[in-house]
Amino acid sequence: MAAPQRDYARLFDLTGRKAVVTGGSRGIGKALAEALAAQGADVAIVVRSTLGLAEELVAGFNAGGGDSFAIQADVSDPADVARLAAEVESRWGRCDILVNNAGIVLPGPAEDFPLDAWRQTMSVNLDGVFLVSQALGRLMIRQKKGSIINIGSMSGRIVNWPFRHAAYNVSKAGLHMLTKCLATEWAEHGIRVNALAPGYIMTELTEEVLREHPDVVENHWAKGAVMNRIGSVDELAGSVVYLASDAASFTTGEIHTVDGGLTLR
Ligand code: NDP
């Protein structure tokens, strides 16, 4: 007699799940929001200044029905985050998936790096993740289930010399540890907390560096990875769907690396 077939595709089905993606208007966040929506989730896209882009995106998600929405909120502002959580609760009554993707890079040599720029980096990349996780984590604790995915970086693991952005590296290393702390504290509430640590991915953020250092892809970024190239936003989509879904039901506190082997050597 043939072994009973398990429906593995259903493990990745997110139909009816409610997902919040910060910084989902462009770049990596946009690709991750699209991937979650394609798997059936309703998605709230949170942006600071690009609300028009986010609104266009959710209009596409809702074209065949659904309840995705766009909202302006600065993740580093506690009042904005409280408003975001209130909107999610009144609209959906729950939050199943949170992707903390919003992040900034402010480069500069350590000896001249302004304290304001240091604090700004920490306030978006660390305070923002803490605030949004806390606000939506309370909803997840109440429903006894949830998956949080923090977008970390290989910069949280290695110093990506010759670039000088110590504040960014420190913020991402802190984000990896915050991931492990929240995973530990909230496991008893049925909440899984993981990080996705990409290598170099082509987005507006990286294009800005390229304008100043046009040779960098060839001579540094691609050569650093054992796969000898940089990545595309679409190459992160499967990982976020996996971590958000029941396929990852026994995975928590993990720093999931997608970097073409950049941090191997
Ligand atoms: P982009 O600069 O292309 O996009 C950043 C997004 O974050 C935008 O949607 C932006 O919206 C939003 N955002 C920024 N600050 C805030 C804020 N205070 N509140 C709410 N939203 C905000 O970045 P990427 O797509 O390249 O990066 C996304 C994440 O991935 C970041 O956390 C980054 O550190 C990480 N990462 C990126 C890598 C890469 O190679 N690109 C590599 C490793 C990690 P708005 O413009 O409206 O403010």
Automatic annotation (TrEMBL):
GO aspect biological process, one term: carbohydrate metabolic process
Family from the record: Belongs to the short-chain dehydrogenases/reductases (SDR) family.
Keyword terms, alphabetized: Oxidoreductase
SMART domains in the cross-refs: PKS_KR
Oxidoreductase among keywords: yes
InterPro entries: KR_dom, NAD(P)-bd_dom_sf, Sc_DH/Rdtase_CS, SDR_fam
Ketoreductase domain sequence ranges: 17-157
Acyltransferase in keyword set: no
Protein name, entry field: 3-oxoacyl-ACP reductase
A GO MF term: oxidoreductase activity, acting on the CH-OH group of donors, NAD or NADP as acceptor
